[in-house]
Amino acid sequence: MTESNGWSTLPTEILLDIFAHIKDTFGWREARHSIKECQIVCRGWSFTAQHVLYTNVYLPKKNIASFVTTLIDTSSTTALGDLVRSIEFYSGEAKASGIISGLNNYIVETLRHIPNVETIGSSAKSNVETGFLWRRIMESEIQNLGLFSLSDEWECNDKALYTSLALKHKGSLKKLRLLFCMDSETEGFVVDNDSLRLKDHINEFKSLKQLQFDGYYYEASLLTELIETVNDCPETVCLLRIKECDLTDSHESNVTKIKQNTSIQDLQIVDSKLPASTIEYFASNLTGLKSLKFISDIENPCESNTEQEYAEWWKQMANLCQGSRHYDININNVTFDDFVHHITGCLQLIRTIENSRKGSTNGFNPSLLTPTEFAMYMSHPPETMDCYNVSINHKGSRIRLIKSYSTESLLRRIDFSTISACLLPFSPSIVNVLHIEPMLVLYNLHQTTSVFSALIDGQDPRSAQRCWSIFESVTSLTKNKPGSVGHLDKAIFPGILLPLREDTEQDGQMKISGEARYFELKFSDSIFHPIAFSEMSLKLPNIETLILDGCTFLSDSPSKLEIDLSTTNLGQLVLNKIHILHSGNLFYPADDCKIILINNEGREEIVNVTACDDSPCISIKFKELQSLVISGTQVFNKRKL
User: Fold this and answer.
1) Degrees (nearest 5) of the Cα angle 303, 306, 310?
2) Rounded Cα distance, 351 and 358, in Å
3) Residue 495 pLDDT > 90, yes or no?
4) Separation of alpha carbons 100 and 106, rounded Å
5) What span, in angstroms and rounded, lies between the C-alpha atoms of 275 and 309?
6) Do 243 and 272 touch, CB atoms closer than 8 A?
7) Distance from C-alpha of 80 to C-alpha of 578, rounded to nearest angstrom
8) Which of 113, 162, 355, 444 could be joined to 81 by an S-S link, Cβ 3.0–4.6 Å?
């Protein structure tokens, strides 16, 4: 340990910020190791590091005994236990990790030496809380306990002890979970006495910040209990979490007076039955709401069956979201019949919110309006637990439909033109249609090129129709909208030329004309037959930016690629990682390949004249081209002239 003035004079506030950054960035385990090392840098750091280490204590199973020894040894000197504000037992342990011998005694000694603790628990092992910690806390003299359950996995048979412990610390408790269970001694759906005790004393929890309703073990409506609890909850409560509750209208509801609540700012609803009438209650009475999160994996959480009922549900959801700054709505269990209702409803929600902001007289700034982004995986989205097939994002908020693991049979029945008809009135500026062709998702093109021969040659009309239909829908949605982006991913455009559709207003789309402009169009990891781009060019008279990323082109030669956009005015063309597919083999044009630009008058211009005569050649036909970028390198830029 040094006495260096440079290190010792570092202000404590800055040192604490550094320690906090370490913890937030790397987690408690790495932070603990780093802060321990800081104790030996200099005396000026030692006290601060020690204070941080003992303020928030994370105890793996192997460290419990030594920590208790330290508390006892320092009790008459530095009293390190007085520093402890938060302690977590079994930190980072697997749930199957065994209970150490003498745990009860260790807990008793720990609680005796940490009089100022505010948080006690075990996020890894709920049985450590219910089987050991709670009883010892109940027997202790700790006064200012704010939290004693980190796992929220305790069940009905633990409820009596939880209730007693919560009531003992009702003056300091920060979080309260009301787990509703049926009273086994009473016929019918009657709330158990423990939940009623907490509900009846809810206004005495003067420090309460978070309130959770949990109805997993209760099969009847809890709407009455919820309304009465919200009526009486203290003004300190800012988060209300509702999990697995039936919130349908109760015929036996006897709430005579409903009070407005201005303190609840964050509403989270998980896997609960939520009809439109209950959403209306939230919208009318949670007047301070700033954030809404709705997550549902259950069947028909809206309690809707008809188009009108779905429209009413989304209308009330829009009213609820209007006053909040952020919303996050996630509905997984969507059937084919109600899919269009949900798409239409969530788009109408976004339009309602946007219109209310436009009409606001509260200092509305038009520059705050942001584009709506629509994204849909047509098959097999990335294998993550949090990936949905449909996502609509707007100004930091989002609505998502259909989670990845439940989609295959549904997606096979969905026609994107139906979705496009829903989207067109709401004008999303960014449209991403991803994983269009399932075979490009399931198979590795580089290893199994023969799998795609029938599709590329146009022997599967259904696949051809699918890709061209999606292409026309995306271009119709993004046409003539400044800043718009259309993105098609993993599509196959085969050698079947579909007739150019003269779109009319009757089918919801605008007629293509020479004035139509597209601001950015991107194709990624897609396959093109040689004649595909000539067909596309007829439909794309003006493109500011065209991006071809990781795309593969069928060619008669392994060293020659032709991109025919002879009827298109191009601002910028971007080519990244282009492949040539010839006779079942893939070839990769080098970055220094010969580039031949051909305008509609037939005039040719070789861009990189230093390329060898036998170098691969990319020939690009266009009506007009301002800029060309290949693999991140600008090889042609007429805009500089």
Assistant:
1) 60
2) 10
3) no
4) 10
5) 9
6) yes
7) 64
8) 113
* Cα-based distances in Å from 138 to 101, 129, 152, 172, 431: 21, 12, 18, 15, 57
pLDDT for residue 16: 66
Paired sense of beta strands 492-493 and 373-377, if any:
unpaired
> Encoding tokens for residue 309?
């009922």
Share of the chain above pLDDT 90, in %: 43
Q: What is the CA radius of gyration of the chain?
A: 32
pLDDT single digits (tens) 597-640:
888 777 778 776 555 666 778 888 988 999 999 888 888 888 65
What is the CB neighbour count within 10 angstroms for residue 594? 22
Task: Please report which residue ranges of 114-237 form alpha helices under DSSP H.
Answer: 126-128, 134-139, 159-168, 193-200, 223-232
Give the containing element (helix H, strand E) for 318: helix 307-322
**Among all chains, which residue has been given the structure tokens 């991403």?**
432
pLDDT at 426 over 90: no
- Which of 197, 151, 191 lies closest to 170, judged by CA? 197
Query: Whole-model pTM?
Result: 0.85
Contact 529, 468 (CB under 8 A): no
Query: Which among 556, 532, 538, 560 has a CA at the least distance from the CA of 548?
Result: 532
Query: In angstroms, how far is the first alpha carbon of the chain from the final one?
Result: 66
CA dist 542 and 478 (Å) reads 12
Please give the Cα distance from 517 to 520 (Å, whole number): 9
Sheet of strand 56-59: strand arrangement = 56-59, 86-89, 119-121
Q: Could you give the CA distance from residue 273 to residue 248 in angstroms, rounded to a whole number?
A: 6
Tokens 């408690």 appear where?
28
Give residue 402's region: left, alpha or beta (phi > 0; psi -120 to 50).
left
CA pair distance 263, 275, nearest whole angstrom: 24
Cα separations in angstroms, 252 against 126, 221, 227, 248, 255: 36, 10, 13, 11, 9
Residue 46 has pLDDT above 90, yes or no: no
For residues 81-90, average pLDDT: 92
What tokens does 639 get?
A: 């805009």
Q: What one-character DSSP code corresponds to residue 124?
A: S
Q: How far apart are CA 594 and CA 608, in angstroms?
A: 6
Judge whether 431 and 470 are in contact, CB under 8 Å: no
Q: Could you give phi then psi for residue 620, rounded to 5 degrees?
A: -120, 115
- Report d(CA 496, CA 460) in Å as an integer: 9
